[in-house]
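Task: complex structure prediction.
Instruction: return structure tokens for all chains below.
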Amino acid sequence: MARKQGSHAGITGPKVREAALRLFARHGYAAVSMRQIAGDVGVQAGALYLYTPDKQTLLFDLMKSHMEELLAAWEAADTGGTPLDRLEAFARFHIRYHLDRPDNIFIAYMELRNLEPDNFAKVEGLRDAYEARLIDILDAGQADGSFAVPDTRLAAKAAISMLNGVTTWFREGGRLDRAAVETLYWDMLRKSVSA
Amino acid sequence: MARKQGSHAGITGPKVREAALRLFARHGYAAVSMRQIAGDVGVQAGALYLYTPDKQTLLFDLMKSHMEELLAAWEAADTGGTPLDRLEAFARFHIRYHLDRPDNIFIAYMELRNLEPDNFAKVEGLRDAYEARLIDILDAGQADGSFAVPDTRLAAKAAISMLNGVTTWFREGGRLDRAAVETLYWDMLRKSVSA
DNA sequence: GTCTATATTCTGATAGAC
DNA sequence: GTCTATCAGAATATAGAC
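Output:
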């Protein structure tokens, strides 16, 4: 990365990232111009290039940061216990984390195809690492008989797809509140892997 | 729609739609230029405007057609029976239909944000109509005690999210074949709504 | 039914003033 | 650290020849 690291670490750098995240999530990477991002931040288009070498790197940095923070947050949230305990912790963590950051999950799952091959491979690796945490839990439950999951790799993908879906429809102040949604999803997930 | 209906109904019209579908699914609506579509079909960019009034209408027509065909196909596939029978039919139909048309579901769920408000409302209405078919099945099962689904609207969304996920990772000739995938997903869905 | 040519606007990115 | 000015190319869409 050719960005001048730290030397412009004022307030504008983070604002550029925030604006890019919001706009990419809302309209898609390809549909958003550097001028739009600049306008949102309140600077001219040329000024963006003080904070990122190019548009592609801006997207990649956002996705990479998101996945790394997601992984670190789960490591911190995983308190151990029985496979069932851990699966519940995972489900509730995943929903809560993503409802707090709807823009992040949007770009993490929808802009993969706009990454250049090298960047794609790196982000996909991080995503696989996160999925592997869930597979480990399912394997443990399958081994001790608390789950009946014939294919834990497929089940992990199915579970994450289901949980991710919540961000596409949940709206604050709607028919169901966060706690209710969290519990309803956990209830379905728990039963779906039950013995 | 200002397109000259039928008068150019040779072979190029369908080819334009096929190329647009494939390219939009692969790279995203905003990232694909009319020149790329034209190049893929083997005509010049200007010639596309004989088959569509503009790029936006091309996207909208693809999404609308897909949703209408999906609805009609399910109406034909729904053979009735117990709620459990119908849910199994729905799950297997949905997976099979979408694995046969990966490009369609890709744009149907990822390009909504690129539709203009009027077009968005129409496509969302069709999507809601499809979802309503699943809600009906869940309601019936909840009423006769064969399912335990406290919130059928949320459950329908969760189920469709889970089933849709299959298109993001399934590859022909991979570790699992279609029949195995279909059965594994159905098994999870069945348990997730079980009493 | 497709072509070439073109109008107009926008794109990502850079140079250099202040 | 942000500005203005600008480059070179690509975007959608149209006009009119054949």
